[in-house]
Amino acid sequence: MRLAVINLKGGTGKTTSAVYLAAALSRRGKTLLVDADPQGSALSWSDQAERLPFTVAALPVKTLHRQLPELGQGFAHVVVDTPPGDLGVVRSAALAVELALIPIPPSLMDVDRLRPTLELLAEVEPQNPLRIALLLTKVRRGTRSAAAARQILQEMELPVLDTEVPLREGFATTFGLSPLEVGEYEGVLNELLGEAVVS
Ligand SMILES: Nc1ncnc2c1ncn2[C@@H]1O[C@H](COP(=O)(O)OP(=O)(O)O)[C@@H](O)[C@H]1O
Ligand SMILES: [Mg+2]
To answer: Which residues face 33 on adjacent strands?
Structure first.
């Protein structure tokens, strides 16, 4: 599978989701994580980690879609982590994949700021009819915000995954470490791959 983690807003959980999904995918086949963010968060994550179960390559360029077929050769799965602001790079990432995963925290501000991301994906669609999935991240347990955000997103007819990623210390503190437990991201991947969730 070729997927890009996209949200033009910063801090929504893109890099965390990209690293955890790459870790989950690496259990199924050889996986490449492409860091397309010029800030290089995924790359510095992998620099600090002793050993990751996947390969990381930095390619924060607008020609990603032209280079990815060659770069991804020999990999069963490719995950692209994208920057928040760099439209050219994000557009190129969207052109290079079959699936865009949009991580979004369940706040009204994040929902409100979703429009530029959706517009960019709609713009890419005629050239590359990619699938879109929204993932609620940083969900505070015992609060109503996730249900409220889910309802608004569904009213916008956006496909929201059933699996939610909770706000959890463990996700924030694994930077620079290899995710041994992928937690909810296993369920996210099952949904993305269309597999039945085994619990
Ligand atoms: N599920 C989570 N629980 C707790 N902290 C999280 C979670 N997901 C991301 N974070 C933290 O939120 C911040 C932004 O996440 P990050 O993945 O870097 O987002 P982005 O790549 O979209 O900017 C980071 O400090 C990260 O560690
Ligand atoms: Mg990031």
So the answer is: 56, 79
**Domains of the chain, first to last:** 2-191 (3.40.50.300)
CA-only gyration radius of the chain, Å: 16
What residues contact 166, with CB distance under 8 A and at least 6 apart? 138, 139, 140, 141, 184
Q: In the chain, what's the furthest Cα-to-Cα distance? A: 46
Q: Residue 136, CB half-sphere, CA atoms under 13 Å: how many?
A: 26
Stated pTM of the model: 0.96
CA angle centred on 140, ends 13 and 82, rounded to 5°: 5
Question: Over the stretch 146-179, which tens digit does the pLDDT of each residue have?
Answer: 999 999 999 999 999 999 999 999 998 888 888 8
Contacts 24+ apart (CB under 8 A), 148-155: 148/106, 149/104, 149/106, 149/107, 149/108, 149/110, 149/111, 150/106, 152/108, 152/111, 153/104, 153/111
Q: CA-to-CA distance for 15 and 10, rounded, in angstroms?
A: 10
Helix, strand, or coil here: 77? Answer: strand
- The Å distance, Cα 106 to ligand 2 centre, comes to 18
- Near ion ligand 2, which residues have CB within 5 Å? 14-15, 41
Cα–Cα dist 193/191, whole Å: 5
Atom of ligand 1 nearest to the CA of 16: 17
Hey, which of 8, 15, 16 would you mutate to test ligand 1's pocket, going by the most ligand atoms within 8 Å of its Cβ? 16
